[in-house]
């Protein structure tokens, strides 16, 4: 599949979903307020059309528009996207809750008061959506919570028991997640004094030439045994070659379907995100990436997108732990409902095969600059023996 076709499918998918959601909100607003003016209806349609296109337009303008305008439009479109999801989710919930009133005829009995009740509902829905989005923007800026994980591995030794491994992902550094934000996250990670830092993808979200200074921010990450990264889907969307050069300048060791052994015998391996297949890149079998040493050496494997069946295959081939990201844990309601249905383990720890799949909800955000119920997080992994109980503790 060509890159042009991938982008076309992605664009049309986003456009159709956005268009349907905006049509639903437009229809609900017109019915609730009983708008009949032709002029008002057309103004609302034009506004809905612009809002439906605004995020895709903002993403495109990053590459061609003056920086100040691109930043302003991205902030507007991203905040509106979050507000749109909240308005849609609340409206759907109210519509479902209202079905019994319609079926029993209660709503019909209230017909003399429909106009007033509908206005109250519109105001209430908008107020609640604004409050949710406001909280979401605050929560996205809170210090990352630390998630402690005690992870059993084979061939444990004294050196590995002392090792501190930080797992963090989904920075989505770019126009919205800028230098100040990245520097703050880097400081939070460094304060944990990890020996190794693992970043399974989606590190950068906009063309590197527009955010070159962010490489210096990432270079401040401190880990004696290095910072290891794998590719996420967004590294391909903005151009793989450019992304890899940026990550190299950022001081990260990007593992591309390869493995490396650290002191103490710990093997760190990584595969490219499955998006690589859409770019006609070949991803070797996981058994080949892990090699025979994974059967005897403690092994952690980075794979951006959580896939239970694939993770089971990896652990059966010798990996003790597969670490993933990508889902953001849903990032905010109601998207979290969709990711929970889509991914068997969209956030947290799952026993698979002969090991475990650990999915972080990430530290940054994509689309809406908000997190509702899924605050930024850094996972701190402690290695223990196979006969010791696994534990994950949310602080």
Q: Distance between the terminal alpha carbons, to the nearest Å?
A: 44 Å
CATH class of the largest domain: Alpha Beta
Low-confidence stretches: none
For the secondary structure, the number of strands is 13
The mean pLDDT is 92
Write the element-wise H/E pattern from the N-terminal end onward. HHHHHEHEHEHEHHEEEHEHEHEEEE
User: What is the spatial order of strands in the main beta sheet?
Assistant: 5-4-3-2-12-1-13
Shape call: globular
Helix content bin: 40-55%
Q: Give the full name of the CATH homologous superfamily of the largest domain.
A: Metallo-dependent phosphatases
Largest sheet: 7 strands, mixed
User: How many domains, in number, for the residues?
Assistant: 2
Q: What structural category arises from helix and sheet content?
A: alpha/beta
Query: Radius of gyration over alpha carbons?
Result: 23 Å
β-strand amount: 15-25%
Protein architecture, described:
- This protein has 395 residues and is α/β, with parallel strands linked by helices.
- The protein folds into two domains: 3-139, no CATH class; 144-394, Purple Acid Phosphatase, chain A, domain 2 (4-Layer Sandwich).
- It contains 13 helices and 13 strands.
- The chain has helices at 3-33, 38-61, 67-103, 106-109, 114-140, 158-161, 179-191, 214-218, 233-237, 240-249, 286-290, 308-316, 335-342, and strands at 145-153, 164-167, 196-200, 227-230, 253-254, 258-261, 267-270, 299-302, 321-324, 348-352, 355-359, 377-385, 391-394.
- A seven-stranded mixed β-sheet has the order 5-4-3-2-12-1-13, covered by helices on one side. Strands 6-7-8-9-11-10 form a six-stranded mixed β-sheet.
- It starts with a helix and ends with a strand.
- The model has no long low-confidence stretch (mean pLDDT 92).
